[in-house]
Amino acid sequence: MRNLKTVNVILAASMLAASPFLAPSTFAQDAPEKSKTADDSLPTPREIIDRFIEVTGGMEAYKKHTSRTSSGYFEMPAMGLRGPMTVKQSSPNLMLVSIEFPGMGSMQQGYDGTIAWSIDPMSGARLITGKQLDQMKREADFFNSVDILKNFDTSKTVGIADFGGEKCHQIKLTSSDGITNAYYSVETGLARGSKSVAATPQGEIPSITTISGYKDFGGVMTPTLTVVEAMGQKQQIVTESVSYDDLPTEEFALPEAIKTLAGASAPAEETESADEKTNEGASGS
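and the corresponding structure tokens:
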């Protein structure tokens, strides 16, 4: 049971790294990097992202697709766990991540454009709120991982740092939620990963995400290996196939258990809103 609980916590930190592209989370500030001081000789974040888009196929190639299904597997080698994994996404902001572990059951997270949710053997069905909801909204944005700048308030190229054994431009991205650091290869222009702190029901968990093994799927160069380091464990997400434009919106419909939870929470929210209006009226009289 202890191992199952550990798996559950780690999955909460890593499932949203399952996008086939770089998808940094943004909740707590990373430790400062030992890198060169930002100066005018460094490319701007816009130039770095534009180069990434170009070397992975170009924006026109990305815009040709409105939905995406990535299939492969998730594994935690140290625990001897491995199971098939599917990530479904559709424009503008629908997402469903599923992992099936033999002997443990299914773990799912989803976002239908309004409600974020999770179902797993340890916690059962639950609605995702707070910082996790903010994170889910970003990850569900179909083009978030292509042009990450649009989802942040400020961005700055802070220097050149070693990441995954490669010299990378380090971009510091800031939003109202916090700070993340994203890394793009100086040599190839490809995204290599990020350092962040993921919000989970058990608290904030620092993680390092490294991506590699780019392959062409549908005219878009896509990383096939994502390695997430969190809580002293390594998890690998391997993408074996990517298909496009074959997902009806019904694929992202809320499970019945989530519909029940969402329905139960709505009256409470309406009551709170009514109470606020009553109080406002009383104070104004």
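(Above: one complete record from the training split.) Residues 181 and 265 are 35 Å apart (CA to CA).
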